[in-house]
Automatic annotation (TrEMBL), chains A, B:
Residues 92-338 form the Sugar-binding domain. This is Sugar-binding domain-containing protein. It comes from Paenibacillus chondroitinus. Belongs to the SorC transcriptional regulatory family. The lineage of its organism: Bacteria, Bacillati, Bacillota, Bacilli, Bacillales. It comes from the Bacteria. The keyword Transcription applies. Residues 18-86 form the CggR N-terminal DNA binding domain. Keywords: DNA-binding, Transcription, Transcription regulation.
DNA sequence: CAGTGATGGACGTTTTATGTCCCGGGTATA
DNA sequence: TATACCCGGGACATAAAACGTCCATCACTG
């Protein structure tokens, strides 16, 4: 039952919207008993004309009937609604989640895929697919796209395909070396994405654990400077979101910094910045690349992360308020909604 | 699984068509490996532009990809096709049945509802619903609609609702008394339909088992004559189809006639006429109303009947060649296809 | 190096969807 | 009983989408 709806969502996304629309109309009429067209239109937030089109359809199919006093549901219509309840619950739980999160955090789009990345590898793949689809949607010709590392980003890279709209775009790592293993780090991801889409890429080769002096020398280097400039003028950022402590451990952050992170209540991590519960930045990794203030100029910031365990972290980053698009999974979405 | 599709069909009648279309495209590309747009369009019998619209859609969703050499399916697309197989099997079975029957007997539309009327009362209801929907589709303002009796017709009447397009239409019994029980006879059905739709009705009160002399007197009666004229000038006929022997028994036809029916190979019955396997009329009930020759002038003849046991009878009536629309169920449809 | 078949862009036309206004008719209320 | 209100449905201009058609350009093959 669930599978069939997931399949339909892939093959007929717009039909599912129509189904939802018609269901809402019918359901509203059922609840109202008898209701007029204009009243219904305003309470469903539709224009009168488009509601009328749907109502005419529903009437033709004998699901509702109307007389001078207004519209009411027929027996077939009532029966249909009853039969549809389980379908709607499954098919549109996610849609509702998406809309709630988008509204709560002022995002322009939220995509929720079913399942839990923590427990199902299939969900992680689906997350990658959805992330790739989201990127495909927002990308334009000649864009510079900054990406971060992580297993989720790697999944997105896997699901990108060659496409004319992305041919010739630049992929760059959002920030320099952040101490991740090679196959998950931003440099790798950027190059894979470029190869998969027929785009180009530039890398930021910045060694980990740099001393202050070496760091200053490095960022003066013209080659590095050129890439950094490209990164900071990117139009699109795609990044993962992690749990602060998990990321600190993975990046082998020293004990002192780790303790300081804990004291400051660091909860989430994204492109080298650590956020507390309120979305404040409490720490940043010492490397070059995208700075938080650059995000303001960035047109599209796409965050991708899933798993129940990451829900709270995602909520923290959202609260910081720089995100435009969120791609997540059902389990994380439910957690996020607990922290509005 | 099956239910969900049936439910969705009510709210999105073209869902199946679009799903079928997109599936066919993807499937064809899968089989072809790499194929060009024009080649594909001609082998799928679509115009190039329409195909292109669908292909663009599928490409955007990452189900297929294209380069200078042509289009080919992606891994997600291949996976989707695999997942869809069971759905398609179910969804297309009925559609194929509908199309096969329509083609075999030259009908303009065939509607097959799932199930078997013989074994499931729910299927019978569904048949009534589908019959009502078909009538709704073909009816126009000011039409005269001739109907017959029977339990299936009663179901149709049950499923009609008030609608402006049928308000003011006339419902008349196709033929006079045919010896059925009161609540199933044509007169009753016509009056119920009129009440349900906001239409008007005229009845044919013709006693059963009329002698020849009384019959002649009766048809001279101006009142009767008026109704008969209306019946014969009807634009739409909706009728059930029955098994000849079952009907003969139900109508308490005398032993001699019954034997004669058997000798003549009577198989099916519709609006008082009995048909043999080849669709020839072998007997007619002695009453007034619609004659076979009137059907030629009738624009829309809708036959409604279901159940495995009636399959052969339906095929006989179809072979007679006056039907335009058939509404039946899956079990009967499968039987019908055995008799092409 | 010409020929074939591919994609993707472009454009005018047709069809469909939408916004908007109005009319006549019930209905509840003053 | 009079009136103000809300109802469905008709009408129409306009915006938007779908469609048919043609063409430029590119990759590959013989």
């Amino acid at each position: 039952m669930r599978e069939i709806l997931d399949i339909q969502k892939k093959l007929l996304p717009d039909l599912m919207d129509i189904m939802k629309k018609r269901y809402s109309i019918l359901h509203h009429i059922l609840i109202s008993g008898v209701v007029g067209r204009r009243t219904l239109a305003s309470s469903l937030d539709m224009t009168e004309r488009v509601l009328r089109g749907e109502v005419d359809f529903l009437k033709e199919h004998g699901l509702l009937e109307s007389d001078a006093s207004g519209m009411k549901i027929t027996e077939s219509g009532r029966q249909l609604l009853e039969d549809m309840l389980p379908i709607i619950k499954i098919a549109f739980g996610l849609t509702d989640l998406e809309e709630s999160i988008a509204k709560a955090y002022g995002l322009s789009q939220v995509i929720v895929v079913p399942g839990d990345t923590d427990t199902s590898v299939f969900t992680k793949k689906e997350l990658g697919r959805a992330g790739a689809a989201a990127l495909r949607k927002y990308v334009a010709k000649g864009d510079i796209i900054a990406v971060t590392g992580g297993s989720t980003m790697a999944q997105i890279a896997n699901n990108l395909t060659i496409s004319s709209s992305m041919k010739g775009n630049w992929f760059v790592p959002a920030r320099g070396g952040l101490g991740e293993s090679v196959d998950m780090q931003a440099n790798t991801i950027a190059s894979i994405m470029a190869k998969k889409t027929g785009g180009k890429y530039r890398l930021l080769h910045v060694p980990d654990h740099l001393g202050e002096e070496a760091y200053q020398t490095l960022i003066q280097d013209p080659q590095i400077q050129e890439v950094v400039d490209a990164v900071r003028s990117c139009r699109i950022v795609v990044h993962g979101i992690g749990d602060a402590m998990v990321m600190a451990r993975r990046r082998k952050v020293d004990a002192e910094t780790t303790r300081s992170l804990q004291d400051d209540g660091a909860l989430a991590e994204a492109f080298g910045y650590y956020f507390d519960r309120q979305g404040n930045v409490v720490h940043k990794m010492p490397t070059v690349g995208l700075r938080l203030e650059d995000l303001q100029r960035t047109e599209v910031v796409i965050g991708v992360a899933g798993g129940k365990s990451k829900g709270e972290a995602i909520a923290s980053v959202l609260r910081h308020g720089q995100e435009d698009v969120l791609v997540t999974d059902e389990a994380a979405a439910l957690e996020i909604m607990k922290h509005v």
